[in-house]
Write a structure and sequence with these properties.
Order of helices and strands: HHHHHHEEH
Strand order of the largest sheet: 1-2
Number of strands: 2
Strand content: 5-15%
Number of helices: 7
Oligomer: single chain
Low-confidence stretches: 1-14
Helix content: 25-40%
Distance between the termini: 72 Å
Shape: elongated
């Protein structure tokens, strides 16, 4: 893959630099000039979009389907928003159970989708929450006993009593 030999003042050794002006953003793409092997190499770090969307707006909604959120997170977390991904993961690892997480950001930057994906992956490793039910203590009916039951079973158990 060809790279420009002229490097910007803050460029890395690979010749890639940050966009600093509108002209940098409007430079014509060289994608069409690349060989198939170079295209494959350039796009390899990014996952293929497996969810079909009829409109691009679906990509920008925070309430988009989980596979779409995961795709956006995979594309943005590594290069564009690594600090957001690392911060959310770190916060989830150390936060108390009753804490709430709020991360603001423009939906067009992928931040809500990134946060949802990182949170979903981290919370999947947490233990399943429990349901609670008060029942009479068999040894002292005047005293309630707090029972810890599997999630979603407390109402049926209480009705059965």
């Amino acid at each position: 893959m060809q790279r420009h030999s002229q490097q910007a003042p803050n460029s890395t050794k690979t010749g890639i630099s940050a966009l600093r002006t509108m002209d940098d953003l409007l430079k014509p793409s060289e994608w069409e000039k690349l060989t198939d092997a170079d295209r494959a190499q350039s796009s390899a770090p990014f996952p293929a979009l497996s969810v079909s969307t009829t409109r691009a707006e679906a990509l920008l909604r925070a309430s988009s389907p989980a596979p779409l959120q995961d795709w956006i997170a995979a594309c943005t977390s590594r290069n564009f928003q690594p600090y957001v991904a690392a911060g959310v993961a770190s916060w989830l690892a150390t936060a108390p159970e009753m804490a709430h997480l709020y991360v603001g950001g423009s939906a067009s930057l992928g931040t809500p989708q990134l946060v949802a994906s990182v949170a979903r992956k981290n919370v999947a490793n947490w233990p399943m929450p429990s349901s609670y039910c008060y029942a009479p203590d068999p040894s002292a009916f005047a005293q309630p006993l707090l029972l810890v039951l599997p999630l979603g079973t407390a109402d049926a158990f209480a009705q059965g009593l």
